[in-house]
Amino acid sequence: MIEDRQVKKLRRLLSSGKTLAQSALRTGMSERTARKYRNMERLPSETRTPRSYRTRQDPLEAIWPAVEEHLRQSPGLQAKTLLEWLCREHPGKYDQSHLRTLQRRIKQWRGSEGPAKEVFFSQVHHPGDLSASDFSDMSSLDVTIGGQHHAHMVYHFVLTYSNWEAVTLCYTESFESLSEGLQNALQRLGGVPLRHRTDRLSAAVNNQCDRRDFTQRYQSLMKHYAVTIEKTQARSPNENGDVESSHRVFKTAVDQALMLRGSRDFANLESYKEFLQSIVDSHNTSRGKRVSEDLAQLRSLPANRLESVRIDRVRVSTGSLIQVVRNTYSVHSRLIGEQVEARTYMDHIEIWYAQKCVDRFARLRGRSKHSVNYRHIIDFLVRKPGAFENYRYRDSLFPTTNFRMAYDALREQHDERRSAKEYLAILHLAARENESQVDAALRELLAEPALLSASSVQRIVQSESSQLPHPTDVSVEPADLSSFDSLLDETDSWYSDTPCIDEQCIDEQCIDEQCADEQCADEQCDESITESSPVDDSKRASACNETVIDSCDDFQTHAKEGNHENPGHERTVDQSTPRTAFAGVSGELRSGSQAGRTTDTQLRAVPAGVGVAGVSDASVESHRGGAAPKPPSSGEDAGEFRSEAIADEGLAPST
User: Does residue 588 sit in helix, strand or coil?
Assistant: First the structure.
C-alpha cells in the first residue's frame, strides 16, 4: 500500500529534476504507480473511504448486550474474565480464539461509551515557592559497607521549580529522620521556600484522626522556619510528582555510578555518603540558571537550628528493660526502678540519668523488636542459671556464632542446668575480661575434641603465653621455584661431569651397589684396571681422561648443532657451564675419595631416564642382567650415550 510520505517524496524528487524512473526507484514504486500519483492531485489517504461493512459475521453479536451490561456495572472487568464467563455460559461456542476480538470490542466501547477517566492538570511552578520531600528505599541497589549488605533509605528534598535536590541517608521514616533531612537540605540551600509538601507520612500527618491534620512536632518544626505545610490526598502520589520523579532519576543515577565504579562495596559509611553527595552535586550543577532564580526568591534561615531529638521519660522495669518508640532496650541493672530520660535521635538512642549520659546504643529499625545487652544483666543471670533456658530474650545473649556453638556443645555434654551454668560462666568471663579474647578461645576449643568448660576458656584467656591466631590469618608458603632449577642443574652437571667411556666398552657398563648414586664403570674397563699395576693404572687413567675430554667436546658440539636424523631429541647445551669435572688431578679419573690413585677407579652413574640426542631409551635393557654387548645402532657416533639403568638395579663390579 502506497503511503502519503512516498508520494510526497516522489513529488519532491520530480521537482528537483529527477526522471520518473529515478524517482520511482528511490521511492519504492513502479513507474506505472509513480506516473499515476504524479498526475493525481490528492494523497493516497485522501482517496480512501472508511469501510462501514464487515467482511465476516460478528461472533459476539448475539451476546454483546449481556457483556455490555457487565461492563456498565463494573467498568474494571477485563476481556479475559468476560471470555471465561462466556465459555461457562455457552460451552462449545466460544474459546480462546475469540479473546482478541473481545478485547477490540471492549476497547472500542470504553472509548465511545465507557466512563470518564481521571484528568491530570499540569501546574506552573514559581521560583522559591514550593518544595517537596519524601523517603526512598535504596536497599535494592545492593550496596555493602565493609562487605556487609547495607539496608538503608534516603530522605529526598526537591525544589519544584529548579529541581534542586538534597539527600540525607537514614534508616526509618521517623520524625527524627524527617527533621534531620529537612534541616540539612535547608542549611545546604541557604534559604527557606514559602511552602513545603509531603505525602501522608505518619511522621508528619495524623492519619488516624481528623482533629489535626499534622502532628504537633511537625507543626513546631515548620513554625520555626515559617513554612506553610501541605499534604497530598490519600493514594495520590501524582500530587507529589516532582519528588516521586526525582526518586527514579536519582536511584538510576546512583545505580549507573556504581556500575561505572566497578564495585558496590565501600570501606565505611562516610565514604558512601560522600559518594551520594557527589552525585547530587553533579545534578545540581546542571540546573544552575533555574537554581539562581530559586535562590533569589528564598527567605533567610532562622538563627538557630532545632535539635532533631525525641525525649521520653521512662521507668526501668524489674527485667532491666525500657520501652522506647515501641521497641525494647536493656539498660544496666543498677537503674532498675529508676526513671531515666531516653533521647531518640535519627540513628541512635542516649540514656540520661541525673543529667549525665550513662549509655548509648543503636536505634532499632521497625517496631516490636528488642536489643538486650548481656553485660547489663549477666551479674544476676549467672546467679539464676535456671532462668536462662526459657528467657524471652535468650537469643540476644549469644554475642557471636562461637558463643552459640559453645552452648550447643555444652548441651550435648551436660544436662540442661549444668550446660546453662557453664555457658553463663563463659558469658560472665566475656563481660569481665574481653569478649574478643573469649570468642577466640571458644574458636580454639571448638576445633578440638576435648570437653568444653568455663575453666578451660578462662585458662586460655588468662594465659599470657597463649597467642591465638586471628580467624582470617591464612599462611600460604610461596612456591619454591628453585626445584625447577635443580632439574636443569642436574642435566647440566651430567653433561659436564659424566666421563666418556671408550667406544669399545660403551655397552658393557655396570654400577656398584655400594656407590650406585654417583659411580659407574664398564665391565671390560673395570677388569683391565683391576688386573693392571698401579703404574699402568695411572697411564690408563690419563689416557681415559683425554678420551673423556675429546668425547665430551664431540657430544656438546653434536647436541648444539642438533641431530639431523632424530630432530625430536634436539637439546641446547649451556656453553657457559665450566668444565670442572675434568679439572682434577692429572692422570686420574674423579673418584669417590681423595685417596686417589688406587686401583678402584670408578665413573659417576648417569641419572636414570636421561636421554641423549639421537639415543632411544630402549637401549637401557642392554645393560641389565649382564646382557651381552650390542654393537652401536646406525646413526650413533662416539659423542652419544645411552641411558643407564636405575642405580639400585646395577651390578657390582667384577673382581
Answer: coil
Residues 6+ apart with CB under 8 A from 187: 301, 305
Which residues are registered as beta bridge partners of 360? 350
The residue type at 449: P
Q: What count of other Cβ atoms lies within 10 Å of the Cβ of residue 628?
A: 7
Among 589, 608, 586, smallest CA distance to 598 is for: 589
Cell of 149: 549488605
- Please tell me the distance from the alpha carbon of residue 452 to that of residue 442, in angstroms, as a whole number: 8
* Distance, CA of 399 to CA of 494 (rounded, Å): 65
Cut 0.90: pTM above it: no
Q: Quick count: other Cβ atoms within 10 Å of Cβ 28?
A: 13
Supply 221's cell numbers: 518544626
pLDDT for residue 470 is more than 70: no
pLDDT of residue 235: 83
The Cα 269–Cα 277 span in angstroms is 12
Contact 522, 510 (CB under 8 A): yes
Return the SS3 of 197: strand
Which of residues 153 and 628 earns the better pLDDT score?
A: 153
| 644 touches 520 (CB < 8 A) | yes
Instruction: Report the half-sphere exposure of 67 (CA within 13 A, side-chain side).
Output: 25
Alpha carbon distance 264, 272 (integer Å): 10
Residues 6+ apart with CB under 8 A from 543: none
Question: Got the DSSP string for 313-382?
Answer: EEE--TTSEEEETTEEEE--GGGTT-EEEEEE-SSEEEEESSSSEEEEEEPPSSSS-EE--HHHHHHHHT
Q: Are 181 and 280 in contact (CB under 8 A)?
A: no
Sign of CA pseudo-dihedral 59, 62, 68, 70: negative
Q: What stretches of 214-307 adopt beta strand conformation (E)?
A: 228-231, 265-266
